[in-house]
Amino acid sequence: MKYVIMFTSTPSLDAAVPPAQAQEVYGRVYEWFAEHGGVITDSGAELQPVETATTVRHGADGPIVVDGPFTEAREAVGGFSVIDVPDLDAALALARSWPMLDLPGTSVEVRPMVTDYSQFEG
Q: What is the maximum span of the chain, computed from C-alpha positions, in angstroms?
């Protein structure tokens, strides 16, 4: 089953991580991707900081473009990958092994992908 795993963190807490600790954790992140490459179905992506976001929103007179993320949130998505594993338990086991979880304010959101679009045929 395919899942999207989204890696989130809290920017204000990220800024407080000592550089040596951040370097060590990033090293383990690279190892994590190498170790789990067999179930990662895309190259994934690390995203630029949330301050670089631009959002297109609904507006009364049509879509409008605004600076910043579409929601005001404490946590921000910093990257994502698509994985293909047998079930949710396997996806959660993979998410639990994410090295960045050693840092405060981080999380991994696991969400099943829609893979059957037959409901839209018609």
A: 56
